[in-house]
Amino acid sequence: MARTKAILIVGGSGFVGSHLALHLREGYKVFATTYTHRMLIPGVTVYPLAIDNRDWMKRMIYNTQPDVVIYAVGSHTIGREEADKRKAESAHAGGAVTLCDVADIMQPKFIYLSHCQVFDGEKGNFHEGDSALPTTDLGKVKIQGENFIKGRSLNHLIVRSSPLFGRGNGRNFSPLDRLRISLDRGQRVELPTNEYYSYAPIYGLVEMISRLIETNIRNKIFHYGGLTKVSQYEFARGFAKRFGFDQKLVQPLRQETTAASKAKPIVLDYSLNCTNAVQTLKIKPLLLEQGFDLIEKKLVTHL
Ligand SMILES: NC(=O)c1ccc[n+]([C@@H]2O[C@H](COP(=O)([O-])OP(=O)(O)OC[C@H]3O[C@@H](n4cnc5c(N)ncnc54)[C@H](OP(=O)(O)O)[C@@H]3O)[C@@H](O)[C@H]2O)c1
């Protein structure tokens, strides 16, 4: 009888990690790590882990013997201070390297979660083969993480995702939870109108990662995103409209205008082209409205 695969989700207490844990526990032996948000996930073995604790990481890897490691660590809010940037570098890139090194003998499949901001936002509809020339702090640490993983693991997959929406796990609020709470309290939300993304529901990413766990494909990059390209402002307006909140609470973020930006407004388009994932992994790309339908169906995330 085939052994049930062991999956280690690093960053299991996060928005993405906990959705993965809840889904994958149905078919696999799942281990998940927590850092500042300690939590129990029924059906999942939880380990506390600080990404810079190499010895503890080594012990965890020996105890769990993972067939697959999913690296879902790191926050998107990176402060301006040098220390904040170092922290982000350690979470998004350094920790992944240490993990790759300590798991070297076992060579698990290493799935690294990257972000559409590895691109410069100049043209949008980015394919996997397009040059990644990040300009944001997040994009820079993500490309560093990608390059480290490519150099260290002979069995890796990199998933570059557009912003994901869905409910958080009750301990760690997702960006959508924060938006919903503000709108619910009647608080005004200001968002950029000039940054475009192919927003996608978290459930689609979870589905895609489930397929990647079972595939024999290795050492490849896949893009994941939705079919609708909108700005952060349009996304929030769309959400407010669909779920019956006051749309007027969502307002364009007032940005500093310079002579140059007045002459040629800066528009950034980070949308991803997911044709490769759709064709290879047979995932279904979704329109924004279809993503909202899924949210409606799964309003409660059970832990
Ligand atoms: N969410 C998206 O829309 C999106 C889109 C594209 C890519 N991604 C990528 O997916 C990954 C997960 O994103 P997310 O939205 O789930 O973020 P999140 O909710 O902030 O979760 C981050 C996870 O990382 C853990 N963590 C942070 N610093 C750590 C450290 N020093 N040591 C150990 N664990 C640490 C957190 O643990 P605690 O909470 O317990 O402290 C949490 O489990 C990130 O790499 C992100 O760039 C996310």
Q: Tell me the number of strands.
A: 14
Q: Let me know the CATH homologous superfamily of the domain at 6-164 and 199-225.
A: NAD(P)-binding Rossmann-like Domain
- Distance, first to last CA: 30 Å
State the helical fraction.
25-40%
DSSP summary: helix tally: 10
Principal-axes geometry comes out as: globular
Beta content? 15-25%
The averaged pLDDT comes out at 93
Uncertain segments are none
Q: Which small-molecule species are bound to the chains here? A: NADP nicotinamide-adenine-dinucleotide phosphate
Sheet with most strands: strand arrangement: 3-2-1-4-5-6-11
CATH uppermost class of the domain at 6-164 and 199-225: Alpha Beta
Q: List SSEs in N-to-C order.
A: EHEEHEHEHEEHEEEHEEHEHEHH
CATH architecture of the domain at 6-164 and 199-225: 3-Layer(aba) Sandwich
CATH topology of the domain at 6-164 and 199-225: Rossmann fold
List the helices and strands and how they pair.
Elements: E1 6-10, H1 15-24, E2 29-34, E3 44-48, H2 54-64, E4 68-71, H3 82-102, E5 109-115, H4 137-152, E6 156-161, E7 164-165, H5 175-184, E8 189-191, E9 195-197, E10 200-201, H6 202-214, E11 220-224, E12 230-231, H7 232-242, E13 250-252, H8 259-263, E14 268-269, H9 275-281, H10 288-297
Parallel strand pairs: 1-2, 1-4, 2-3, 4-5, 5-6, 6-11, 7-10, 8-13, 9-14
Antiparallel strand pairs: 9-12
Helix pairs in contact: 1-6, 3-4
This protein binds NADP nicotinamide-adenine-dinucleotide phosphate.
NADP nicotinamide-adenine-dinucleotide phosphate binds near residues 35, 37 and 172.
